[in-house]
Amino acid sequence: MVEWITTPGLTDYRTAEAWMESRANAIAAGEADECIWLLEHPPLYTAGTSAKPADLTDPDRFPVFGTRRGGQYTYHGPGQRVAYTLLDVGKRGHDVRAFVKDLETWVIETLASFNVRGEIREGRVGVWVERPEKPPQLDGSPAEDKIAAIGIRLRKWISFHGLSINVEPDLSHFEGIVPCGISDHGVTSLVDLGLPVTMDDVDVALKQSFETVFGSESLL
Fold first, then answer.
1. pTM for the whole structure
2. 180 is known as an active-site residue
3. What is the mean pLDDT of the chain?
4. Predicted local distance difference test score (pLDDT) of residue 5
5. DSSP label at residue 99
6. Using 50, 70 and 90 to split pLDDT, how confident is the model at 29?
7. In the prediction, which pLDDT does 218 show?
8. Active-site position among 35, 36, 180, 206
9. For 31, how many CA atoms within 13 A lie in the half-sphere containing its CB?
């Protein structure tokens, strides 16, 4: 069974990290159910294990938190749905690549609920959308913007951290970093794409698409 927790307001980042570590240990010990935790953070930047100092272009703009999740720099803030995924990867086949693929598929299926085509790109982490209304890239291919980020950590085959989907964040807040080390593409959100989508709408879509991708029963 997977428990779903939704926390209103803005959750302190270190508080969230401590809670995830405690819950992951409890899941590994068989003392707690798997969990999806939906929340928002105050504006902040996080540095994953592959973060490059040069990619933090405005270090004084928001608090910066080092973290042991995979990936580089990312932004969290109001209007962005963070979904922390505390799941047993061991019982799902001990295949980290397949698990990350499932997370990507989960995001793509969620976006499809709003008629948004999310795509993955080789060598680029996260989920992307084409922007044909923007000038094309130098090679003539359509412009692309990032709409979701993914970064996980494992402990005893239990995952934590997870993913974030841009619903209606202040996109200018991404300007203090090179998001995920990629400088030649932009960032977008569901509202930026012209969709009047609320956080509650996204939560419903996340729950529905989770069942499709992972096939798990949920404790809602």
1. 0.94
2. yes
3. 93
4. 98
5. H
6. very high
7. 56
8. 180
9. 6
| Higher per-residue confidence, 110 vs 182 | 110
Residues 6+ apart with CB under 8 A from 1: 33, 34, 216, 217, 218, 219
* Confidence bin at 154 (pLDDT 50/70/90): very high
Instruction: Give yes or no for a contact between 65 and 15, defined as CB atoms under 8 angstroms apart.
Output: no
21 exposed, middle or buried (CB, 10 Å; 0-12, 13-18, 19+)? middle
**Is pLDDT larger for residue 169 or for residue 140?**
169
Cβ-based neighbours of 41, under 8 Å, separated by 6 or more: 10, 11, 12, 13, 16, 76, 77, 78, 80, 82
Does an H or E element contain 165, and which?
strand 158-166
- Neighbouring CB atoms inside 10 A of 92's CB total 17
Scanning the structure block, which residue is given the tokens 């159910």? Answer: 33
Please tell me the distance from the alpha carbon of residue 25 to that of residue 70, in angstroms, as a whole number.
Answer: 19
Which two structure tokens, joined as six digits, stand for 169?
Answer: 């964040």
